[in-house]
Amino acid sequence: MTMTVTKKTQSKKYLALMIGAIIAGTAGMAQASTERVSVTTGHKQSGHDSTADTDLLPDNLPTRAKSTNPDISADSRFVVFESRANNLAGNKADGSLKDTNNTAAGFNNTDIFVHDRRLHTTERVNVNSSGAQSVGPASDPSISEDGRYIAFVSAATDLVIGDTGAFTDIFVHDRQTGETRRVSVTASGAQANGNSTEPFISNNGRYVSFTSEASNLLGNKPGVTPAEPVDNNGVADIYRVDLQSQSPTDYIKRISFGRNNDDGTPDEANGASGHSSMSTNGQLIAFHSDATNLLGYERKDDGTLDTSKPLDKNGKTDVFWVDINAYSTHLASVDSAYIQGDDDSTNPVISSDGKYIAFQSDASNLVKGDNNGVTDIFRHETRIDQNVFGGDTIRVSVNSNPTVNQADAASTNPDINGNGDIVVFESVATNLVSDDTNGFRDIFSRKVSTGETKRLSVDNDNNSKKNESNLPSSAPSIASYGTAVAFESDATNLLLNELEDKPGKLQPEDTDTTISNKDTNKSTDIFVSFINRKPDFYIANQTVCKNAGIQDAHIIQNVSDGDYLGVNQSIAYTTVSNSNPDLFGGLLGAGGEPF
């Protein structure tokens, strides 16, 4: 399996590549197919320490250590998630300061954590720019491709100066500089007058899209007294902010509105919108909406628009995508002939290159032969690269049997990898893979190019026979490179062999300790499963290789972004930002995972 690398520049880079066979169980990260990441620095499982707060609730209450809602970086090194546990990390990456914001008045407070799978460290990121913890809950994290930027929702008022609002806001934390900024504000920095939720940060970390009920994010209509908001539809809308904008007019834009009035004026959505997802460059944005007027209207005999007859006629929730540069809105929840779905379609995710959108739908007319009567997962081709809109729509919540492959129960919550070839989702279906007998919701992947469907929520035994999870799994997030999937699970049997590693090491093979079945916290955890786990190669620089007693390292020069290296194109390189070869990590696994 080759790895798709998002191209950043066309400049030449120097790489150091050392190829060496690695014995299973001895690489820089856990070798197993499934590993737990909702753990402390030092790899202790999440839990609740009653000495860190003042409430009287029992420490063994299952929800006390619950970790949910993961998002994984492009190369699968970093996983962000929300958790109620108070032992994962303090204000610093080394956990030296305790998590004490779970008080009696708010024991349900959740924090946002990032686990570094290479260095085996966990840090809390819903902190202010000085590193101090917040007093309010945080949720819905989204991570940039390199793991540097984290967007999240919080009701806290102490993350930034001047936050006096009573609403949830969108924040972005820079893990490199430590800065936390509020982004759900007007171009002049004024607070939103409604709740903002569902952030999505672009892979390059420049753009953040989100849902907001606020009416003042676009300011007021010019020349109107008394002041009248530009956003006056009274429903939730989709917005996008540009964190690098130097112009107030370009900082924030509303995405969910009609663009087809003859006079060029926007037509406010007449229904609520939500669940946005963006391409890497922030140009293409997918979302679902109840609005019926986003596509425009039919024309009367005299050629004028008939606003009583919208082109969106199905009266259902639909999936749309917007090209913000072309000022155009299109449907994604359609069949291959661009016929609208006959039931609700929701929860879209768009590939990094913008070519594909995956979504869930109750519609039965998006593909031929859909008669299972349950929610399915579909993938629609935008054909943005061909300037021809309305590509093929296929169903991906199917098994690998070419004759009888419909799911026998609902599939929901999709995610899609960078080039759109792999779609992951959760399902309670029992016929997507053979021997699915656990009766619980599982995590599946569908590779469109090969027609292969796999179940990922299985234990980490490297034997060919995979053991089923004993409780439900949900909320899958796939790395953009398509190598690994993070998900949440209540299961207690996914860790037959869990590696407990010393934090901060890049090559911990000399001191790994295998500990059997350590999942005893009786709570929801975050796991990472690998779609193709082949731990065969290292990437390192010559100095590291020499120190490790390895003499066959060599420099490969003049390699362009996106090129592949190695045996059978199973290795893809990682770019560096200077002319000297840097240490990229250890293991290359999961079909090209770059460390």
Report on the structure:
With about 600 residues, this protein is an all-beta fold. It has a domain at about 1-20 and about 540-595. It is built from 2 helices and 41 strands. The strands form 13 sheets. It has a 4-stranded antiparallel beta sheet with strand order 2-35-32-31, with no helix packed on it. A 4-stranded antiparallel beta sheet has the order 3-4-5-6, with no helix packed on it. The model is unreliable at about 1-30, about 50-60, about 500-515 and about 535-595 (pLDDT under 50).
Envelope shape: globular
> Which strand-content bin applies to the residues?
25-35%
Helical fraction: under 10%
The rounded Rg comes to: 24 Å
Spans where pLDDT lies below 50 across 5 or more residues: 1-32, 50-62, 500-517, 534-595
Span of the ends, CA to CA: 15 Å
The main pleated sheet reads as: 4 strands, antiparallel
Question: Structural class, judged by helices and strands?
Answer: mainly beta
> In total, how many beta strands?
41
Give the averaged pLDDT, no decimals.
Answer: 77
Q: What's the tally of helices? A: 2
Strand order of the largest sheet: 2-35-32-31
